[in-house]
Amino acid sequence: MTNLFHQDVLTALISGGVIAGIPLLLAACGESISERSGVLNLGLEGMMIIGAYTGFVAAYYLHSTWLGFLGGAGGGVLACTVMIVLCVWLGLDQIVVGIAITLAGEGITSVLQGAQFGTTYPRLGATPTTSIPLLHKIPVIGPGLFEQNLLVYLGIIFAVFLTWFFRSTSVGLNLRAAGEKPEALDAAGVSVAATRSWAVLSTGALAGLGGGFLAIVGAGVFTPFMTQGQGYMAIVICMLGRGKPIWVALASLLFGISLSITTALQLAGIEISTDLINMLPFIAVMVALVLFGRRSYLPPALALPYIRGAR
Amino acid sequence: MTRPDQGSSRRDPAAAAPSARTAAVVELQGITKRFPGVLANDDISFDVRPGEVHSLLGENGAGKSTLMAILSGIQTPDSGEIRVDGTPVRIDSPRKALDLGIGTVYQHSTLIPALTVLENLMLGDSTGLRLDAAGARARLEEFGALLGVDVDPAARAADLALGRQQQVEIIKALWRGSRLLILDEPTSMLTPQAVEELYTVLGRLKADGLATIFITHKLHEAVSLGDRISVLRRGQMVGTLNADAVGSTPPDKLEEIVIEMMFGAAAADLSEVGELRVGGVEEADAAAPAGPARVLGEPLLELVGVAAPGVGTDPGIADVDLVVHEGEVVGVAGVDGNGQRALAEAISGQRRASGGEIRLFGAPVNRLSVLKREKLGLRYLTDDRIGEGIVGNLSIALNLFLKRIGQPPYWRYGSVRKRAIDARAEELCEQFDVRAPGVETRAGTLSGGNMQKVLLARELSFGSKVVIFHKPTYGLDLKTTLAVREMIRQMRDGKAALVISTDLDELLEVSDRIVVLSRGRLVGEVAPGPGAAEEIGGLMIGDVSLSLAGAESAA
Amino acid sequence: MSTVPGNELLTEVEVPNRAGARSGAVGKAIDTVIRSLVPVLLALVAGGVLLLILGHNPFAFYSSVWEHGAQNKAWQESAKRMAPLLLIAVGLIVAFRANIWNLGYNGQFLLSAAIISGLAPSLVNDLPLGLAFLILFLVAGAVGAIWTIVPALLKAFYETNEIITTLMMSFIGVGLAQILIKGPFQDPSVNIAQTKVLELDKMLPHIPGTKVHVGVLVALAAAVVVYLAISRTSFGLKIDVLGANPRAARHVGIGVKQLIITSFFISGALIGAAAAADILGVWGYIRANWNPAYGDTVIPFVFLARLNPLVVIPFIAFFAVLSTGGTLATQEVGLPTDFLLVLVALILLFMTVIEFLGRRRSLGQSYLTTGLKDALRPPGSKKKAPPTEVEEKPREVVR
């Protein structure tokens, strides 16, 4: 039995954690955009699985990781247009539509996968990595953190960008206003529907991209229901991070590590029921909710449709 | 002094040529707006000129708010024409209204509590992706100088006093270079002192050539502030008193004319006409009960050093000592948001008192639940009738019985006895004059007045002894208001009432004595009578103005 | 008379006795039928289009569904399928009426199913059969109820959003069920991870003359009992008040915390009982990684039935046919059975759209409660208090 703190084990843990954390990070950052604007996007799980499927298919047929990512984002956008039309424009219930999108996403990707590949699950090759000069030579963390797919770095940079975006841009301000008090935004002459539409659209793209990353980089294969509740986990991460992108990113990576712990433990030669390991992130979420949930913040107008003059 | 303008070369026509003074900034011609079952605006024509305050007066539901919503782009009229500077325009969105230079201060705040003052003001600026905080700060300073107010741009809107919030709202309305300012019931939430400040600000803006529409249902405000006064009644424009008439008529006479316009000629015959002069404190004084002859009974409700925590922006209470005797109506005055809700909920049991003792009929009830206090005869008529009083999708009958769910004889062996409930409900509806197709009608479809009557029927029946009335007449039409006040007065007959209200005139009218709530503490007690209003007003603002001054000097 | 807009958002969940003004009862009935059936029809049509795209004949497919789900003796299979579906539906109705989003049904169901499968083989042998079944149903209900404790307490005391907590508990419950099946309850005599199989004569007895087990009767009885409880008792009125307006519930002295916990428990218990009915009546054992996700498929029908436990019965019957027939029909044409999930999602989507068209002015939310938004507040953001005194003023007729 290898030492749990052996260098290879730790590297695998960090590296696996980052790879597993990036889909969460992207989806959770996306969700925080939606939630800031007052749309509770319970369809995140569905958008991720659709993104995973379209991303995989694009990468598989076009033989390009990046076109795959693009395909994933596109799939997410496609899925979220349903939400935009029904929830943002028509003001229908966000929870019901969210559940519907998730069910539809899971069902349709499974059907399409079956129709295309039958019961075989073709795999993609390894994806290219980009090493950060010098940094990747640091022992343990180096290979874990700084020898990753380019999208990993972009995702983390995006979280930083999002912080600035919320705070210092007019669009960011509009987003916050749409979630805090949509009638105030409307009175200020900005369309609430447009603001929220763009927000949900970005969420869809990010969730789809996250799903695509999961299938292309994380798993290298598409299997039905492969997101396994990660969309819901991203929603919780967004809640716990109080919609602050940096916190969301950190929490995502932490949860990523708990997702990747199985592989690391197997490397270390420790045999633990995978079912138990799979439960860990959810148990972690419950513990986090019990301990810190009281301080999470949601915009006042979250999940409420806005219709002018209907107050 | 000119209003800061965003670089446009638009000049005020009034300033340029006196002859243009009669040219209206905005003119409405034959505006009609229908809602299902209601004709909210019926062929209304109206205009406002530069450098004048045009008061728009009317009862609740007269159509004032609809007219304002049409001008600010929230609603579009079914027919009629709006002209800005003589050019017909279509205002189909708030953005359009802003672009045309129409700025509105809504009755319900449009400031976002979680954002700073500056962020609130920058909202909707579309100059670029990056927010221009420095530019906005400079502009805010200019406005501060014009209005004579000093606002901290980095303060969160939620942390500002209501009067200060309104000043920010006015700045926000003028932010994009407005030449017409619409104020919808601007004084309803303000202390007398803040109202004075508002008058000063409006005076300065008027001198600067701004046109202002001042919407109110308070007669004396309309008269004292308006250069012209227009009166709406049931969606129709009754008439406009022009500047000459307003200027040359003595206030008393003017008020009488306006009352007749508001309520029709018949109103003059109403015995209660004195009470129509909402805000006319002197008249209300006269109507105050003269009750030295009455003997007070046992103390029914006692509060000894009671404290209760606040919730969110709603402050708590501390050290409240209060006694209400049998046969007594005690008023609680104070500016909204000074602990009224905490007081009412602590007594009713909806909020746990964190200190002190609450006694009902001499026995402490601190540990008793809402339901148990209710069974002792304590009732709480909530101020939020839609939010917590009524369950809209249940029938009137069931709403009347919400506080006795599961109790015999209306529930037996765990099963509801619908006939018993309906029969009793019909009696109650009759007794309290609830106008509805039947007791099966969904309570949510009732008008505010009828809803309040359903709640009154619930709280005043079934052996109620001590009743807390929280803003009992807020938003009600005149007839219902009078009926409710009469019911409160009848509490003197062997019961006891605590009336929490922000309407000073109402308190002066119904109470035997009035305590004043400020910052969660009782700061004094006043007996109704000449000069009571001023005294209460002083107590109400005492603390507030001090702390505001402190905050400003610190800033 | 005009309506206060806020109230139009309230539920239209009506139990006959409690219906409001009933002008034009016939028109209303037709309206209800249209609103309930059209989404289903549209979903079937859209599903047909999808089948065409995938290269299948939709008519052949649907007739195959009918053949395998209802014709000849197939209806008995569908009837058996109704038992768990109906119990879950009724369980969801109790929670949804109280405006509690118990979305943890999969965990509650599977954990109960695993524990029942583990206990049943020895219990049915050691005890009289009737007593064993009674105990097993009670255990299943208790497990389902217990699995709601954490979300219930968190919601009752800290107002933590139960959508999130029930979903998380669901994932944990599913995982725990796998551990139980692969661990303590594993049948040592086989190589596959599964529990010991019940002998056929030790399963729930059949209704005489059919091959339908009595669990279906239990489910139907549960629906009737819950219907009576909702329409006749004070408990029913209390959860309706809580669901429609939690602040009013507090105001009128209803013990809100207690009621939230009770509703959660009943909901979880019914879902647990669904597992007992399905395991003891149909399967006789549970295999690892088996997750029928009945709850997911039941949700649209719960809404279409307007949260009425009696009205939901025909909807469940319909879906039971679609489900049993559809499983075989999809296998016949070589589609994954998840195609049914797509149909369910389509029903849900079309339902919201039809709701919107039917009540254009009322924002199309008639099957949901306003209090729902409160459910989404985390604790500590204290939405119960008026955000500002300006906002929550009771408003006169808004024009």
Rounded to the nearest angstrom, the radius of gyration of chain B is: 25 Å
**Major sheet characteristics of chain B:** 6 strands, mixed
Query: In the CATH hierarchy, what is the architecture of chain C at level 2?
Result: Orthogonal Bundle
Instruction: Sketch the major β-sheet of chain C.
Output: none
The CATH H-level homologous superfamily of the largest domain in chain B: P-loop containing nucleotide triphosphate hydrolases
Shape of chain C: globular
| First-residue to last-residue Cα separation of chain C | 11 Å
Number of domains of chain B: 3
Low-confidence stretches of chain B: 5-21, 266-293, 543-555
The rounded distance between the terminal residues' Cα atoms of chain B is 26 Å
Q: What is the number of helical segments of chain C per DSSP (H or I, 4+ residues)?
A: 16
Instruction: Count the beta strands of chain B.
Output: 22
- CATH domain class of chain C: Mainly Alpha
Total domain count of chain C: 1
- Roughly what percent helix of chain B? 25-40%
Reported by name, the CATH topology of the largest domain in chain B is Rossmann fold
Short key terms for the protein model shown above:
heterotrimer, A: 311 residues, mainly alpha, ABC transporter involved in vitamin B12 uptake, BtuC, globular, B: 555 residues, Rossmann fold, six-stranded mixed β-sheet, 21 helices, 22 strands
Structure, described:
The complex is a heterotrimer of chains A (311), B (555) and C (399). With 311 residues, chain A is mostly helical. Chain A has one domain (7-121, 136-295): ABC transporter involved in vitamin B12 uptake, BtuC (Orthogonal Bundle). In chain A, 71% of the residues lie in helices and 1% in strands. Chain A has a two-stranded antiparallel sheet. In chain A, helix 11 (245-267) runs antiparallel to helix 12. The longest helix of chain A is centred in the N-terminal third of the chain and has 30 residues, at 7-36. The N and C termini of chain A lie far apart (66 Å). Chain B is α/β, with parallel strands linked by helices and 555 residues long. Chain B folds into three domains: 24-113 and 178-269, Rossmann fold (3-Layer(aba) Sandwich); 299-385 and 460-548, Rossmann fold, CATH 3.40.50.300; 391-445, no CATH class. Chain B has 21 helices and 22 strands. In chain B, the strands form five sheets. Chain B has a six-stranded mixed β-sheet with strand order 6-7-8-3-9-10, sandwiched between helices. In chain B, strand 9 (228-233) and strand 10 (236-241) form a beta hairpin. In chain B, helix 8 packs across helix 10 (251-263) and helix 12 runs parallel beside helix 20. Chain B is globular and about 70 Å long. The two termini of chain B are 26 Å apart. Mean pLDDT of chain B is 80; it is low at 5-21, 266-293 and 543-555. Chain C has one domain (5-375): ABC transporter involved in vitamin B12 uptake, BtuC (Orthogonal Bundle), CATH 1.10.3470. The longest helix of chain C is centred in the N-terminal third of the chain and has 29 residues, at 25-53. In chain C, helix 4 (74-97) runs antiparallel to helix 12 (256-283). Chain C is mainly alpha-helical and 399 residues long. The radius of gyration of chain C is 22 Å and the shape is globular. The model of chain C is unreliable at 1-23 and 361-399 (pLDDT under 50). The termini of chain C are close together. Chains in contact: A-B, A-C, B-C. At the A-C interface, helix 4, helix 10 and helix 12 of A face helix 7, helix 8, helix 13 and helix 15 of C.
